[in-house]
UniProtKB/TrEMBL annotation:
Name this protein carries in UniProt: Ferredoxin-type protein NapF
Source superkingdom: Bacteria
PROSITE patterns: 4FE4S_FER_1 (PS00198), 4FE4S_FER_2 (PS51379)
Keyword terms, alphabetized: 4Fe-4S, Iron, Iron-sulfur, Metal-binding
Residue stretches making up the 4Fe-4S ferredoxin-type domain: 23-53, 56-87, 125-152
Pfam families assigned to the protein according to its UniProt record, in alphabetical order: Fer4, Fer4_3
InterPro entries xrefs: 4Fe4S_Fe-S-bd, 4Fe4S_Fe_S_CS, Fe-S_Ferredoxin
Gene3D superfamilies with a match to the protein in the record: 3.30.70.20
GO function terms (MF aspect): 4 iron, 4 sulfur cluster binding; metal ion binding
Length: 152
């Protein structure tokens, strides 16, 4: 058993459904239902964070990886569902009770994973996520105890 699997047994699951990049809250995903999903295939060659639900609607799974905004899914979308432009994907926060750094253990996995430097620490402990966060989810998959939570 790897370290993440072992440590995550002690915390509850976090998260929720997160819409793909290059969409907005009102995006109509009905065209995705009959699509073969080339956006998901394109993402599989990058990070593999984009999946399809049982109906065929694309969604992000931050437990697998984060989004690098590489635009591979955007370029592969034949239906025009994904459109240029971007807003934060998800609201992300740290569950203090589950976070090792909030319990006095030095851990900087979330900070190291963040390309925007949105995870800040008070000294070596007590991380928080600031307004620079894009909601990419890279910190979520990096956390060994699943202490980074999100909502889409």
């Amino acid at each position: 058993m790897d370290r993440r699997a072992f440590l995550s047994r002690f915390t509850g699951g976090r998260g929720g459904r997160v819409r793909p990049p290059y969409t907005h809250p009102g995006t109509d995903f009905s065209a995705c239902l009959g699509c073969a999903g080339p956006c998901v295939d394109a993402c599989a060659n990058e990070t593999g964070v984009l999946l399809r639900d049982a109906k065929g609607v694309p969604l992000l799974d931050f437990a697998r990886a984060g989004c690098t905004f590489c635009a591979a899914c955007l370029e592969a979308c034949p239906e025009g569902v994904l459109a240029a432009g971007r807003e934060p994907l998800a609201r992300v926060w740290i569950e203090e009770a589950a976070c090792m750094a909030h319990q006095g253990v030095v851990c900087v996995a979330c900070k190291q994973a963040c390309p925007e430097d949105a995870v800040v620490f008070e000294g070596m402990l007590y991380p928080r996520i600031n307004e620079a966060c894009t909601g990419c989810g890279l910190c979520v998959s990096a956390c060994p105890v699943e202490a980074v939570a999100w909502s889409g």
